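Quick illustration for those who missed Monday's session on complexes.
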Amino acid sequence: MADTHFELDALVVGGGIAGLLTLDALHQRGVHAWLIEQTALGHGQTVWSQGIVHGGLKYALGGSVGEAAKAVSAMPDRWRAMLDGDAEPNLSAVTMRAQACAIWSTGSAASMVGLLGAKLTLQSAPEAWPSNSIPQALSGVRGRVLRVAEPVLEPEHLMSVLGAMHHDRMMLGCVSGIDSSDDGTSVRVDTSAGPIDITCRHLCLLSGSGNEALRELAGLTPGRMQTRPLQMVLARGDLPVLNGHCIRGTKPWLTITTVADDSDGRIWQIGGEVAEWGATESSTATIERATAAVATALPSLELSGIEWATYEAPRAERSTDDGGRPDTPAVLEEGCMLTGWPTKMALAPILADDLAGRIRAGAEPTNVPKQYERPTAATPPWREVEQWTSVHSDIPA
Ligand SMILES: Cc1cc2nc3c(=O)[nH]c(=O)nc-3n(C[C@H](O)[C@H](O)[C@H](O)COP(=O)(O)OP(=O)(O)OC[C@H]3O[C@@H](n4cnc5c(N)ncnc54)[C@H](O)[C@@H]3O)c2cc1C
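Prediction with flavin-adenine dinucleotide bound:
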């Protein structure tokens, strides 16, 4: 009979960017660690994100470099080293959406204050975009177009690459019980090949919005997590490539990233303030607001024939006193249980270092037996949209 009991140094629960980079960091240090994913890699946030490796620009637009901007300022260089294959994990196979983001403003005086703040205070300050290569979508923009060295990667492909790298250390399964004792933690996992029990010295809960339910299952203090909702906008059709932020006042009003559509066209994911406001609005109202904003921000763009949709995406984070965004990644260490939220995809390497630094290697690493199913990358939101609409507002906002 196949063995159904396993002993590990560490079990990682959740295969988003936090779980996969932590698994990788543990593996690099010789720690015997496996990862359990319940649905698909990056389901919920990572694959639904815009894939921008932030360097602090959007936190510094007001003119001062706060904790959040400081925490994230080194991340573009750190990710670029991995994306160039010069640091572990080697992510050189990951598809890139762009090497840099554009920044432009709506032309109002308030917008320019935001851009000036960014120029004055950022470590890697935005610079003028060379006039001969300005993205086509920005041709009608009044005022300067800036370029900031924040790479944009394809999150679904990032999950596939990391998933393939750690194929032998992952399984698809559902955690149905967590029992802690002085000797470690025993985790019951239901898999398609039957239930198994895993005893581990450390349990890393890195399940995004799934952390709250896992913490309850483990008897840990509730209420340590918050979710901040977004209603993101999708546009589909004959769209130009555009990755960047339109600034209004001191905030990104629209953050647009581009991916190739399965059928020749392109998809735009649209976030920023428009998606924040959308969290409390209907899909129709959000599309109307977003299309009016796009018409203002990109005056030369032809919107007829473009189809629109929205998707809801809650950001899961450690709770804060005021419900606002935490500045840094968060780890809660409670006995042998570690719960983590990276806060941003860009910050996940810091979280992974932190967690891996708390766990020592013990047992000789072994692979997950072949009979256990492996998780694959989650489906991006635009492939799950049931209905696209061409109804929109092209009245400038
Ligand atoms: C719309 C949107 C856009 C964003 N854009 C950016 C951006 O451009 N740049 C940036 O840096 N950050 C961005 N972020 C933030 C970033 O996506 C998240 O901070 C990051 O992806 C969180 O990673 P994670 O691994 O903690 O969570 P997730 O990516 O949510 O992964 C959690 C994983 O755990 C699994 N899981 C859940 N419950 C269980 C369970 N019980 N057992 C096993 N597995 C479980 C899930 O299926 C999932 O695979 C964005 C977020 C959103 C919502």
